[in-house]
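User: Can you predict the 3D structure for this chain?
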Amino acid sequence: MEAPEVRAKGKVVGLRQYLHVSALDQAAPETQAAVAKAAQRARLAEGAYNVVRLDLHGGSLSLLDYPGFFDQPFPALARSWKVDTATGRFTYRDYRDSQNPPILHRKELFLPPGHQEVERFAKLTADIEGLGLFEDTVRIGFRLQWEALLRERGYRVVDHDVVPVGNVEDDGDEEFEPDDGLPVFRHLTALSRQSLSAPVSAMLRLGLIDTTTTMFDYGCGRGDDIAGLRSAGIAVAGWDPHYAPGNPIHRAQFVNLGFVINVIEDPAERREALQRAYELADVALCVSAMLASEDEVKGKPYADGVLTRRNTFQKYYSQAELRQYVEGTLRTGAIALAPGVFLVFKDSAAEQRFQIGRSRTRIRFLRPPVPRLPRPPRPPKEPKVRVPKIKLAPAPWPPKEPKPRKPDPWELCPAKFDLLCRRWAELGREPALDEFDHHQELETAFGSLGRAMKAAWERLDHEAMEAARAQRIEDILVYLALQRFTRRKPYRQLDITLQRDVRAFWGDYVSATAAADGLMAEVAAPDAIAQAAQRAAEKGLGWLIEGKSLQLHSSLVGRLPAVLRVYVGCAAVLYGDVSMADLVKIHLASGKVTMMLCDDFSAPLPNVVERVKVNLRTQDVRVFTYGPETEFEPVTLYLKTRFMNEEMLGFAEQAEFDRRIEDLAEVDELSRGPSEVELGQALREAGLKIDGHAIVTDDQPPALDDRCGAHLTYRDLIVCGETALRTGLPNLPRQLHSYRALRELAENVLDPVIDWYGSVILTYGFCSQELAKLIPGRIAPNLDQHAAHEVNRLGRPICPRLGAACDFLVQDEDMLEVARWVSANTSYDRLYYYGNDRPIHVSYGPERSREVFEMRSTNGRLIPKKMTI
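Assistant: Here is the predicted structure, written as structure tokens:
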């Protein structure tokens, strides 16, 4: 479907145009009809939206709700409805709970000319521009990045006025913390990605080992894991029969048996190594082995494995076989952490804490639960003493000093009181005495812990508290539902915190397990899965392909509705911890979950190098790998923000990158786009390149045979004049802007002409200084724009009009009719008409004057005369 015609100017960003509803009456009738139809299809009442976004290439139209559009200087998006104008389907997104929603700038551009608020909004824009705050376009589109930029520059916006922030001012806002559901240790994360093995990296990422724990690496090889962990301050030792046979073997909280059992050819020795490692662990053993992939296992059969070309033994397992072997040997349950990596606990309480932690959603505080300390009252001003002119009155007695305000108890220990409130919100219930710290400080401040608890309850936002309680209930139901796979523990063996949760939320364990069983039953209902996926997508949790799948970043799984978390949790029983993958794809109808690993998800265009598909119905796990060692090429992932949330680090930069990509290339619903070669060609043709997470202007000139517009090459516009062809002069532009000007001329004038008439004959195009010296006859390089953006020896443009120009002929057509068509259908700059069978001269430049001249012969000279066609 063609894009609706737009008359009202609005705000244009790339190929998208934004209009406030008050400007719609000045839009083209087609636009007004398209908006009305979109609102009808989305079933929206009048007033539900106040901004319209039009995709200028056609295909979709978005209706946006910005509450406080006129009152707030940078209103935040609350809701959006994106309507497919061809099919009538729409997608809904709710940003009202988002900590980092998109925001609006330059509001005056949305409004119709003459609107009473245009002047006020334009002044704010001018002030912001004057401070250079709009220069970094990546940081202005979302609220948190924008507020951080204002703070960095030392300004804030009050109403619609920009005011500097004094050194002592503090707005009390908390720094934004990315929510990934797990504690983040950045130095350890970087370490795990660069130098650690998969099992050790998994334990580190999941918070099993840190500077407070001990680990023993049983079969440590060359000791790379040990060296890496020690550099991070973790207490670790190891032993290896080949590389470190003299090291002592001793117990530790965690023991790693990393890729050892798969290289032992003797089954009895293999079993003994596994049992010995388990005996050394006080808390848990991590055991890993090589998995067989979908590719054929290469090697010569030997015993129950194969001999490789290097004459080493390898025993390959499937995920299910490895679990069965570990559990059968150790006579205890194993928890999958990742493909080929299992954790076997000895300490049942530690196992429960670990499992509950995996199913828990991290509480996201939108605002601090307690207010800041009030500023101290200002001292009273000294009274003015009036001195009569005639008679001096005795000085009045100085006023009494006001008694200092007695502080509220919480003001005596605000940080400790804040921790109590946060703990209450995390648990969703009143915490027991052993579930929070700093009893002495709170008791001293309030007189008793009971008064402190009462004050905390009064201070809490009860609406937010109910939401936290509901979330905590969901977390426990997810945990209890997934415990069906590992034989659910009786109530008396539950962790004490979990026992309190059960009593507080359900009253008894039977009711809690019954609710968990009901949740597990929903997993088998496709309708329940589809509805939950719809709710998740509306909250910005993943990319929904209706009726097929929901795909999202693994860090967002903990924020999914409970039924989807159980659905993914069932797959995790077979796969391992899904946080070890980059993406999770929930198949809505086939009972499958796919985990995807990328070479570097932080890159703007990551490549998928591994897919693990788990079939929940058949319990089958299939591994697909991509890369140089396989016969399959890695798949490039386009439009990565589809799978992210606006609160994730790097979202704003990626969103801008994706917007530019959408303007350049076609990307399907599976996020598949052009190949690397095709994308590179598209970027070159547009004069662009990728620099990190930005798409910037290419600083290298294109090749002559690169495309210039849809139908021509640069060679066509550079080597096309009679003199250029006769002399063979290179005639190449020296200025990069000249190439861009030629491309704009092709895209805006020549492409439409060729689309309409079929072809053109170019008779004169770009003209360098060297070529101009060889052209016989009178030419005017300083006026005709054939020199594009070239400069003279003084560095000044040869033609101040800039832009670019060409002369062309359409064979067997009246060139007056061609000139009329160009005038009516293109945004040219100047057009010169020489006769109905002669080429016309057309330019495209920044002035876009749309002037037409007829070249008339007077006394043997051609004189331009303005004409109307």
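DSSP finds 24 helices and 34 strands in the chain. The longest helix spans residues 736-757.
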